Each structure stands twice: as structure tokens, then as C-alpha cells.
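In keeping with the milestone schedule agreed at the kick-off meeting, the structural modelling team has produced records for the first pair of proteins. Each record is given below as a sequence line and a C-alpha cell line. The laboratory manager (R.T.) confirmed that both were archived under the project's standard naming scheme.
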Amino acid sequence: MISPHVRRLRLAVELRALRAAAGLTHEQLAKRIGESRAQISRLENGHVVDQADVMKILDALGVDGERWTKIMTIAREAGEKGWWESTRGMGERQALSADLEAGATTIREYHQTFMPGLLQIPDYARARTDATTELEPSAFTVAGVLAGRAGRQRMLRRPGAPTYEVILDEVAVRRLTAPPDLVKKQLYHLTTVCNNSEPTVTLRVLPVDARIAGYAVPRSAFSIYSYPDPDDPTVVAVDTVTSDLILAERADVVPYQELYSRLRDAALSAAHSLPCSPRRPANCPITRTAHDTSS
């Protein structure tokens, strides 16, 4: 399944390009198809998907043949419902993550504070959910969050799964974000998954004393999603306190791609990041922290 969210963004780009090529304003196009200007804006902003309106726009602009088929296919995929739509209580932010992960070919993430959701064990996810709900009311439930985590993690095991690379800040490794025994179990799970998986899953630790090119210290966690259709946008999701900021314009995405590249260069290699390394297992941040939490 291709991400409906990304397909909505792609559909918006296609519709804007068609209208611009026809030299029409929002009002003029709306009048041609008998809809409101607001509806045209919603379609072109990716806020709604209405296949009937899309078809009327294509007919009004004389689009046919392969171009008509391509745009209507995008509109159909943009309106599809993913498994996350019926998973109650998993939370809006996690549902959006599941949407963006659908059909991705590569997922690259930088995690600054917590263990990556795609690699969390149920006990750790439950502890983090409990900690969050203590601070503020929430629309998600522990059962829903765990079901969402499980669904997203299955995505990494399916045929044609995306390549997943995560850079984990050493602060996230060493700071206790759950009871010590759970953190220890979580860290060992990270090593197990990354050591036993194919090159599909890669983890790199960014040491606290790492020197990042240009001293480009990241301000927040973020994820970068790429898709097989070269015309689909690369999407960045930036982690903020209350929601995820979604960026799809090239001018907004490129700085995050450059930042990720610098973080990757500054991070330990995959071999040195995990206890499996025969060269320096004792100095691996994950090894040290797992040992510290057991004492």
C-alpha cells in the first residue's frame, strides 16, 4: 500500500500544475466545475480527496489518455484507508507515522530523546505511554499504542520492507526514560534486532562528544521518508512537543537531508554502535548503559 498522505500531497501538486497550465484562477476553475473556491483550495493543499471533483477538473481541463489515468490512480490511492484507520486508541501522531511508513523504500530517523518507536519492545512502549498520560490528558490508550507499535513493526518484516536506518543520540541511550530494568531489556532488544536482521535495519549511535560538521547540532528529532515513485515527494516529519510537523517542499526537505548526512558522518559505525563489534565492545554506548542499569 502506498501512503495515502503522500499520495494526497502528490495529487495536490498535479492539480495545481494543471490549473496553472490552463491559466485559471481558483475562482475560474471552481465556476467551471460547479464547486466553491474553498473546495479547489482544499484539493490543491492536499486536505481532502474527492475523486468525483478530481474527475470533473480533469474533464473541464481536457485531460485524457495516460495523464487522466495516472491522476485518477493517484486520487484513488490518496483516498484509501490503511490499517491504522481502524486501530482505535493508537494516537493521531502514531497513525500519521504508520501512514508515512506505508510503501516507503527508505526511512531515515534521528532520535534525540527516546528509543525509536519502530524498535520499541511492548514493556518500554507501555512505560512511555504511562509517563505521557501522567502529564496531560490523551486520546490514546495503552492497548491502542501497543497495537499501533505492533502493526508498524510488522511493516519492517514484510516482503519489500523499506531500508530502515536510525541514528540514536547517546543521550537517548544513557538517560533513563523508563525503569532501569525495562531500559536494559530495550537496549538488548536493539542489539538483537540490528545484529540479526539483514542490512534492512541499521542503528548508529551519535556520541555526546561527536564533532558534527559545521557544528550543525540538531534541534529536534526527525524522520525522512522516500518512496519508489520519483515524482512522489520526499517527506520529513519533525518531532515537536504536541504534534509532528510535516514538510514536503524541496526547499524545506533538503536541509534535513544535509543535516542527516552530517549526523551520520559524525556517528559511530553500525559495528561500533552495537555490542557485537569485535574491536571495541566494551566501549559501545549501548553496552555501557546496559551494564550501568543492571547495577
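The second protein of the pair:
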Amino acid sequence: MFKLTAEEQRELEQWAQSRTLPAGYVFRARLILALAEGKSYREIERSMQTSAATIARWSTRFEQDRLAGLEGRHKGSRPRTATAAVQARVVRRVQQIAHFG
């Protein structure tokens, strides 16, 4: 169970009800709010359809870094770059369409 400051409570409630934030933020906010309400892992697993490992991960991150700990840490994949071969194929295809189009 967490003790939330009034500011953290307000912020998490806004996140939890947001329709514009990424779904991950909404999920994490609801999870932390549920923990702060004293709900058990089992209750949260069932109601949020998640695992104990996920609850533990976000609980630990919140304890360590508070709201900042709820931000995603996945940097995503690097943008793909077209190789010379792919670029040549695209140019040929565009030329074919322009010629026969």
C-alpha cells in the first residue's frame, strides 16, 4: 500500500481518466491508485487482467521514482532505413507506374 500525496493522487486520477494519454499511462495510474486503496495483488490481477510481475514492476518503479517512475522506458525501435537495393526497387517501380500509368 502506498501513501500518496494530494498532488500525486490528483495527477494519477487525471491520468486514469484521460482519453488522450497513451493507454500504458492510464493503466499504470489505475494500478497505482488500486494499490494506494489497499487492494491486493490478486484483486488487481483479476480486475485489471494483469500479472503479479507487472504489478510488482510498476509498484517498485513508483516507490523508487514516484510519478517519474511510471513513464515508459522502452525507447522503441530505430526507424528503418532503406538500403540501396530497396531504393533501386522503389525507383524502378515508380518508373514502371509512370511509364504504364
